[in-house]
Amino acid sequence: MTESWTSDRRPSLAGRLARLGFTHAARAERLLAEAERDGAGPGDALLDALGGTADPDLALDGLLRLLPAAGGELRAVLAAEPGTRERLTAVLGVSAALGDHLARHPDHWRVLRDGVAGPLGSPRADLLAAVGADPAAPEPVALGEDALVALRVAYRRRLLALAGRDLIGAADVAEVAAELADLAAAALEAGLAVARAEVPGHEACRLAVIGMGKCGGRELNYVSDVDVVFVAEARDGQDEDAALRTATRLASAMMRACSATTEEGALWEVDAALRPEGRSGPLVRTLASHRAYYERWAKTWEFQALLKARPVAGDADLGARYLDTITPIVWKAGEGEGFVEDVQDMRRRVEADLNQRTADSERQLKLGPGGLRDVEFAVQLLQLVHGRADETLRSPTTLDALADLSRGGYVARDDAAALASAYRFLRRVEHLVQLHRLRRTHLVPDDEAGLRRLGRALGLRTDPVGEFTALWRRHAREVRRIHEKLFYRPLLRAVARLPGEEARLTPEAARVRLEALGYADPAGALRHIEALTAGVSRRAAIQRTLLPVMLGWFADAPDPDAGLLGFRQVSDALGTTPWYLRLLRDEVTVAERMAWVLGSSRYATDLLLRAPEAVALLGSDTGLAPRPQEALRTEALAAVRRHREGGGDRPAEEAAGVVRALRRRELFRVAVADLLGLVDVREVGEALTGISAVTVEAALQVAVNKIEMESRGPLPTRVAVVAMGRFGGHELGYGSDADVMFVHDPLPGADERAAGRAAHAVAEELRRLLALPAPDPPLVIDPNLRPEGRQGPLVRTLASYAAYYARWSEPWEAQALLRADPMIGDPGLCERFRALIDPVRWPEDGIGEDAVRQIRRLKARMESERLPRGVERRLHTKLGPGGLADVEWVAQLLQLRYAHEVPALRTTRTLDALDAAVKARLLDAEDAEILAEAWCMATRVRGALMLVRGRASDLLPTEHHRERSSVARVLGYPGTGDLLEDYRRHARRARTVVDRVFYGAE
Questions:
Q1: If pLDDT is split at 50, 70 and 90, which confidence band does 960 have?
Q2: Which residues on adjacent β-strands are paired with residue 228?
Q3: Which of 125, 560, 699, 842 fits 899 for a cystine, CB–CB 3.0-4.6 Å?
Q4: Is the dihedral of CA 710, 715, 717, 721 positive or negative?
Q5: How many of the other CB atoms lie within 10 Å of CB of 538?
Q6: What is the longest distance spanned by two Cα atoms in the chain?
Q7: Bigger pLDDT: 696 or 301?
Q8: What backbone torsions phi and psi does residue 388 show, to the nearest 5 degrees?
């Protein structure tokens, strides 16, 4: 013992241990003193080696257990062989499990000696010999007792040798992963030998074990499920069914041999879930059965799994024939009809998984954001897309495939290097985490000691925890950043003619990739990309930065081609505006929302193209909240006043243009909020109604100003506009006309004829101003709900309305007045008109049975006559069964019958009327809920149709695939079938209520 170990020098020993990195220096000092008394204390060189390990305290514990059991030979070797000393202490400082193994099998330290690459012989021969099987036999059979224990001991001896080389940097991550996969293959072969000993008549069949996943790709972890697929065939003269039953028993016994728990623990689980039909399918199939399944039924993700398939055990000839059969099918998968949709769905599932990960998933090395799965998925997807035409891209190993993709120009060289570096780092950390207890885990420790052990194992000694955490997060961020753009950046180089010698995608390869991402016109998309990125201007440089990510966002939208085209058009319109590209570059929310809006909605895109500066609204939820009607009214009327006072050649037209521009901006605000799910059905209806009301009121004021200017005097009458139909119900849609009635009341002393002519001139001018050709969507003023319809006068006096309703009014006109809201124009006249119509629409004692029958007959006639010919009635959102009209007529019949005695029913809004009917116990709450849900569903569908198509429609699309799927996506449904099923369910339930409540059916 050296002088430094004497009792009077203990303070210096404790300090030395602390400086060497021992966390519990006092405990370590005590253990060393006890070992010295027993004659098993380590010397200074060994103590220094312990201080260089990831966890000196753990390494000391393992060493002090091993030294007495291993005897003097180990002590002498450790003193004489620095390499052996380094490997042994490195293993003990990382892996408590391998320390336990060495304590049970102290002679295994010899596999860590200098000059010993590992146990003699190949892994296959070594592990077969361990179970008593002859490695040279065509079908080795285990003979020894306790074969499972012997298999585990031999397996861990080789694992120990590999860990020794791994932890001192003598083998890199790829080499370690490949050796682990080969070791697993050898264990499967030994497990199959054990199975043959258990299954009588095993000679009747040939069985091949196909490695999948990381085992097949030769990139296995220290502890991982081993994914396999089994293929079998009967030997000559044997019955195939019987042979398959035997093969199934063999496969099951082999899986047990590897996964069973013994006194030496288990190896790992053997997982056959990647077989055809998954866990529901047979465990073993013939080669013909495999081929038939993959040719007819397999999904794209199953072909993705087959990228890594490789025979690893069993009949080598059968395994080779399996690979020869399946490989061509894998690379033809991209020609299938659903390939593009499957690729998109796979990408979306990964993104959705990322978005739904819990806080704990931030510690995930495999599935967390920027984790191993991000790299592997992106590489495999690019292989599926481009490997059809380029056979150099078919490596089953992630790092090799990534290098091949980079060499071929499919991935940028810098991106590939960054991904490879991050992947190696993450795999190294994963190995270290699993080595500690030899348990299957992908979680970074959340305790200080675990993080410290990881950091020191990676050579980070100044601040192991802080340095490791920062390095890990940096790699994860880089992986996530590159993963998001990986599909898109090379597309730019294919067309942008950027300087540099790096290989680029060929036009054909770029076309293939765009097709795989869902672009219907790849050639057109490439032209847009080229136009946006060509040149050396700052604008082109920013576009080259933006587009790799935005192309992915367009691909996630229902119509990527429309999104990219719209982006080019908006960029052309605003390209010289300093704030535009800067906003997109610096505000990721704006760019992402813009991509979704442009790729989802023709309506919103048209609005944005006519007022591109509205893109600034996309920056926040607050900016997209519908503005209060009073604020809009103030802005619009102020603009009208400015144009009246400022003169101009055509003041009326100019003022109307400003008002319509305001409407255009506000429609865009509401449409985007709707597309992003920031507003519900009621809020959309209220907002659109408010916008239209302000537009009509401002146009009315412009019209009055013009008529007064032409007549050189004030208007001789008061004018009001009565909102009718959906307008009056505050339930306007994007494509709704504005149903109105015009009313005027001559001023005292005014000539009634002159007043009538003036009021008529104002109404016609209002309609003309709002019908002028302009870039905004038209607001059609429809006055046909007025008394006598098209045959009646456009404008009536208040007295004329009173006389008409007193003498000629029909029940349907009283019903129409239920949604009348006099809200525009002279306030006093609006109130007098309201007082006039209230007794008509809410008659005292309600309507009689004759009127009820008349309304029911009218409704039935509408259902049979007003539906367009040839349309599917059940899919008509307005007039079809369970559609808008059904629900609205139920509410209106209840109002006509009971509003005189239930004040809450005196509303123009459908849903409010249903709520009031429930509170008054006129309608069952469940029935009201069914009707309200159907009404909201139909309203949402109509709104989505307008947003997607840019044209109004009442019919759910059934033929046009892209349009149908776009509507479904905008409404949040995973597929068109889900939308149709949900709509039909709501409509069917609502119609049942309508038949009972409206028609009186039992």
A1: low
A2: 211
A3: 842
A4: positive
A5: 9
A6: 127
A7: 696
A8: -60, -45
Pick from 37, 40, 38, 42: nearest CA to 7:
37
- In one-letter notation, the amino acid at residue 819 is R
> What does the buried/exposed string (b/e) look like for 779-806 if buried means 16 or more CB atoms within 10 Å of the residue's CB?
bebebebbbeeeeebebbbbebbbebbe
Give 797's strand partners: 744
Q: How many whole angstroms separate alpha carbon 504 and alpha carbon 170? A: 36
Helices (H), 880-975: 884-898, 910-919, 925-949, 961-970
Picking from 841, 837, 742, 834, the residue whose alpha carbon sits closest to that of residue 792 is: 742
CA distance 928 to 932: 6
CB 747 within 8 A of CB 700: no
Q: Map tokens 């080019």 to a residue.
A: 568
* Average pLDDT over all residues of the chain: 90
| Residue (of 620, 622, 604) closest to 612 by Cα position | 604
Distance from chain centroid for Cα 153: 45
- CA angle (695, 701, 702) in 5-degree steps: 90
Q: What is the 3 state secondary structure string of 402-414? A: HHHHHHCCCCCHH
Helices 10-20 + 44-51 axis angle, to 10: 40
Residue 228 three-state SS? strand
Here the tokens at position 902 are 């239930």
Q: What is the pLDDT of residue 355?
A: 54
Q: Is the dihedral of CA 497, 501, 506, 512 positive or negative?
A: negative
Scanning the structure block, which residue is given the tokens 């008061």? 718
Write the single-letter amino acid at 816: A
Query: Which residues neighbour 80 within 8 Å (Cβ) at sequence distance 6 or greater?
Result: none
Write down the pTM of the prediction.
0.72
Beta-strand relationship, 717-723 and 821-825: antiparallel
CB neighbour class for 48 (10 Å; exposed up to 12, middle 13-18, buried from 19): middle
